[in-house]
Amino acid sequence: MDYRRIIPCLDVKDGRLVKGIKFVQLKDVGDPAENAAAYSEAGADELVFLDITATLEKRKTLLDVVKRTVERTSVPLTVGGGIGSCKAIEELLDMGAAKVSINTAAVRKPKFVKEAAEEFGSEKITVAIDTSGNSKLPSGFEVMVTGGTVGTGIDAVQWAKKVEGLGAGQILPTSKDTDGTQAGYDIPMTRAIADAVSIPVIASGGAGTLEHLYEAIVEGHADAVLVASIAHFGKYTIREMKEYLAERGIPISL
Fold this sequence. Notes:
Elements: E1 5-13, E2 16-21, E3 24-30, H1 32-42, E4 47-51, H2 63-72, E5 77-80, H3 86-94, E6 99-102, H4 104-108, H5 111-120, E7 125-133, E8 141-145, E9 150-155, H6 156-166, E10 170-175, H7 187-196, E11 202-203, H8 210-218, E12 224-227, H9 229-232, H10 238-247
Parallel strand pairs: 1-4, 1-12, 4-5, 5-6, 6-7, 7-10, 11-12
Antiparallel strand pairs: 1-2, 2-3, 7-8, 8-9
Helix pairs in contact: 1-2, 6-7, 8-10
């Protein structure tokens, strides 16, 4: 059975869990390790830990915070933010991360995706793609880098196909336009990428209701949903999310 996954996202800045809107207006939500432990116990399928200012600040991921978080969780943890070398990936995997997520470094040096997939296996390599609407591009969606602050002129769907060819094991596209708005995922963008590749796609950016999760899977063709605001602020429990989807015929690991 191919289950759809619920994945809480831990955006981390200066070692603290934060949540913003459209990548800015960040609010402190607490300690990432404590939250990871709670989500792990609550039945999350996986967790994603993103050191959101690492690339902007031109530094590596905060390893001590990753270590504390890994120690507190019993589900697979994907770590991203500031990863630019195979040595950095090796450090994180050795520390207990199940997968890594690369974003800006992949755009700057696409062959890094190939090197990483060959060295560690495709299943360990997630490519995160931050997108923003741009009507001048064929798909209407542009790849953004450096924490979503810089447009690249690269078409997001073409880029997704390219990284699949380079060996990425899954894709995490986040719409900057819907991130943190709780108004719903960017379904056209998610579907365009999911339909263009054969590897798993994780919908990200904008979940505010249980219906949004269902839409991302059924209309957006996503294999998993990333959740942040609706989980961090206590709007819904992981169990409520899973039961809602299961009641509507979505295969879920309860």
